[in-house]
Amino acid sequence: MAAQHKAPQRRRLRPNCHAVYELTAELLLVFKPQGHREGEHMHEYTQTLRVLAGALEVVVKGKPKRLTAQAAPLVIEAGAVHSTRALADTWVAVQRAQARLA
Question: Among 17, 44, 50, 58, which has the minimal tally of Cβ within 10 Å of its Cβ?
Answer without folding.
Answer: 17
